[in-house]
From TrEMBL:
Species this protein is from: Prolemur simus
Signal peptide: none
Protein name: Ras GTPase-activating protein 4B
Family annotation (InterPro entries): C2_dom, C2_domain_sf, PH-like_dom_sf, PH_domain, Ras_GTPase, RASA4_PH, RasGAP_CS, RasGAP_dom
Keyword Zinc: yes
GO biological process, one term: negative regulation of Ras protein signal transduction
Molecular function GO labels: GTPase activator activity; phospholipid binding; zinc ion binding
Classification lineage: Eukaryota, Metazoa, Chordata, Craniata, Vertebrata
Record domain Ras-GAP: where: 298-508
Annotated compartments: Cell membrane; Cytoplasm, Cytosol
SMART domains membership: BTK (SM00107), C2 (SM00239), PH (SM00233), RasGAP (SM00323)
């Protein structure tokens, strides 16, 4: 049995943010921290006080977390980024909203005295004495504190009249004191014992790092108390004005699950699988009842859980086929087929994101990159055209509206033509399971709507998913489909939107209804008509695959471990001698599968096994001061001889770092021998840079965060969790089922 918590986070937009730049604007982005640990960074939206992000994340984390905080930052290329404000939601607040917190929240000022983190190890005991009891306080060590400067100190104050301080431990985020203090407890002693941690500074004021408060009377009764205690902020100050920093629109939902052993879910899984194998002709009623009793607001969650469950059972195609048949039965008009947000539509969307994301990147990625690189002004709507000056220096002339429209049409025709040509050549590149699913969909629709008057209906059924629900959304919002690291600027966004509209027209088979909506798209009609012919030819080849060929393809693919994540990283394997700098890293192309982490000189080169998956013991961040970069992670593993090793890998940005950490943690989450602590620094010379311990093999000074992960569409599947989510959903709709 395991307890798991997850956060569904959607960072929608901000409004009325204060200007941080001399231009009267800001370049805002958000950082999400769970218990002061940064786990998410959104893209930067440039030059605006009302940014729109629309980014969604699923975060898995330990059920013991306390709070999630959203920091709005202003990016600055020349100096440190400015903090605009934050929104903090405690675990109790989220738990009080079973359907999730949704709405606008005012940003509050970030007070350094409230930005505390870490824990302190204390031992407290009441010792009887001849005249009065004595309180013995042993201050052992601290880890995880956020030190503004590299100096640590501890101050403690059990009574306002009896202040004392411990020794100063210099240049350490993980100080160890092992000091003991004794005080006489008078009958009228103070009600509280307060232990505070401070950052000592010789020049400026000391910085508060956190405190722990104990009830003295409770200590008298218990006689002794020892453990790690979470450092708490100083909340004695009055709340600041919340109305002048702007607001943030958020959707955050906490979900706690108790996942039982696999055997507990086998009856439910077997029942669902049996029903899917029988198909629509069988006596099963559970999936139709799930569909009927699922509300619109949770249909996507249910669809994704069911899909992942059947993917794990090798029945995704059969599950989708059953949903296709159920929807076809109740659809009488061909032009409304799969247009609603039904369980079939939502499941197919999730399926394409799980099984077809790499395929999407191969087809759409180069076109998106070209649009971002060119940054051309593109507009087809005459009411929105901006006339620009053109020509060489000294010979400027205003560009006419007709010239703008013609150049825009040429640009869009080129992009659309390149996209359709790439798609038409990609039949073999399409994943086998996707091809098989589209073939089944095409066949079912053709059986339901036969005749020449419905000749295009099977094609439109395929394009309604491939173009309208997959390619077009990815073109409009490439950041949300991992095609780009940043959101597009206003000019690029307009180009992408017009291109997505053109793809939708092709997907609709260039119907009169689609043309009538926006007559100014007419200049693209020749390319759209040609694209319809190309798309129909592509779909005909896609679904015309022999059963034996399909099985051979799937068998070949099953022998290959598909990459969970891949991309360029910089590697440095330190020997512990000399200074370490970013220049000592070597760039290689890494690939992570469910078997090993491998590397090659280029994506197409032969890969060399680097770290076997079973040997990974931890994947964690490295302190910025270690390499002069905040984007370095370490993979702690054992070699074939069982000796501990550490590989340092540098990522290009914080988002890439968090994605790699998440992927590495997920694929190794069931490994034996996972570490509970690690060193966030490096062993340089004769000691660790983080805690100054001399023994290289000593236990780590900070806790590992192996359970904190981000969800991506190509995540390793957790069958037990998906079965638990379906079981919980059935319990929730039990009255309706009865």
């Amino acid at each position: 049995m395991a307890k798991r918590s997850s956060l569904s986070i959607r960072i929608v937009e901000g409004k009325n943010l204060p200007a941080k730049d001399i231009t009267g604007s800001s370049d805002p982005y958000c950082i999400v921290k769970v218990d002061n640990e940064p786990i998410i960074r959104t893209a930067t939206v440039w030059k605006t006080l009302c940014p729109f992000w629309g980014e969604e994340y699923q975060v898995h984390l330990p059920p013991t977390f306390h709070a999630v905080a959203f920091y709005v930052m202003d990016e600055d290329a020349l100096s440190r980024d400015d903090v605009i404000g934050k929104v903090c939601l405690t675990r109790d607040t989220l738990a009080s909203h079973p359907k999730g917190f949704s709405g606008w929240a005012h940003l509050t000022e970030v007070d350094p005295d409230e930005e505390v983190q870490g824990e302190i190890h204390l031992r407290l005991e009441v010792v009887p004495g001849p005249r009065a009891h004595r309180l013995r306080c042993s201050v052992l060590e601290v880890f995880g504190v956020a030190l503004p400067l590299a100096w640590g100190a501890l101050w403690s104050q059990p009574h306002p009249l009896l202040p004392f301080s411990g020794q100063i431990v210099k240049k350490s985020c993980y100080p160890r004191w092992n000091e003991t203090f004794e005080f006489e407890l008078e009958e009228r002693a103070a009600e509280a014992l307060c232990v505070e941690a401070w950052d000592w500074d010789l020049v400026s004021r000391n910085d508060f790092l956190g405190k722990v408060v104990f009830n003295v009377q409770r200590l008298r009764v218990a006689q002794q108390e020892e453990g790690w205690f979470r450092l708490q902020p100083d909340q004695s100050k009055s709340l600041r004005d919340k109305g002048n920093l702007g607001s943030l629109q958020l959707e955050v939902r906490l979900r706690d699950e108790t996942v039982l052993p696999s055997g507990c879910y086998q009856p439910l899984v077997q029942l669902l699988c049996h029903e899917v194998k029988l198909g629509a002709q069988g006596p099963g009623q559970l999936i139709p009842l799930i569909e009927e009793t699922t509300s619109t607001e949770c249909r996507q969650d249910v669809a994704t859980s069911l899909l992942k469950l059947f993917l794990g059972q090798g029945l995704a195609k059969d599950f989708l086929d059953l949903l296709f048949q159920l929807e076809l039965r109740r659809t009488s008009e061909a032009n409304t087929l799969f247009r609603s947000n039904s369980l079939a539509s939502k499941s197919m969307e999730s399926f394409l994101k799980v099984a077809g994301m790499r395929y999407l990147h191969g087809i759409v990625g180069p076109i998106i990159d070209k649009v971002f690189e060119e940054k051309k002004y593109v507009e087809l709507d005459p009411s929105k055209v901006e006339v620009k000056d053109v020509g060489c220096s000294g010979l400027h002339r205003p560009q006419t509206e007709a010239e703008v429209l013609e150049q825009s049409a040429q640009t869009l025709r080129a992009h659309l033509g390149a996209l359709l040509s790439s798609l038409s050549r990609s039949v073999r590149a399409c994943p086998a399971v996707v091809r098989a699913t589209f073939r089944q969909l095409f066949r079912r629709v053709r059986e339901r709507f036969p005749g020449t008057q419905h000749e295009n209906v099977p094609f439109i059924a395929v394009t309604s998913f491939l173009c309208l629900r997959f390619f077009s959304p990815a073109i409009m919002s490439p950041k949300l489909f991992y095609l780009r690291e940043r959101h597009a600027d206003a000019r690029t966004s307009r180009t992408l939107l017009l291109l997505a509209k053109a793809v939708q027209n092709v997907g609709n088979m260039d119907t009169p209804a689609s043309r009538a909506k926006e007559a100014w798209m007419e200049p693209l009609q020749p390319t759209v008509r040609q694209g319809v012919a190309q798309l129909k030819d592509f779909i005909a080849k896609l679904v015309d695959i022999e059963e034996k060929e399909e099985l051979d393809l799937q068998r070949t693919l099953s022998l290959q471990a598909p990459p969970v994540k891949e991309g360029p990283l910089f590697i440095h394997r330190t020997k512990g001698k000399g200074p370490l700098t970013s220049s000592s890293f070597k760039k290689l192309h890494f690939s992570l599968t469910t078997e090993a982490l491998s590397f090659a000189k280029t994506p197409s080169s032969k890969k060399s096994a680097f770290i076997r998956l079973a040997n990974i013991r931890a994947a964690e961040k490295v302190e910025e001061k270690s390499f002069g970069s905040s984007h370095v992670m370490q993979v702690i593993y054992t070699d074939d001889a069982g000796r501990p090793q550490t590989a340092y890998l540098q990522c290009k940005c914080v988002n890439e770092l968090n994605q790699w950490l998440s992927a590495l943690r997920k694929v190794s989450i069931n490994n034996s021998g996972l570490l509970g602590s690690y060193h966030p620094g490096i062993f340089r010379g004769d000691k660790w840079s983080c805690c100054h311990q001399k023994d290289r093999t000593d236990r780590g000074c900070d806790k590992t965060r192996s359970r904190v992960t981000l969800q991506e569409w190509n995540d390793p599947l957790d069958h037990d969790l998906e079965a638990q989510l379906i079981y919980r959903h059935l319990l929730g709709v039990e009255p309706a089922l009865r």
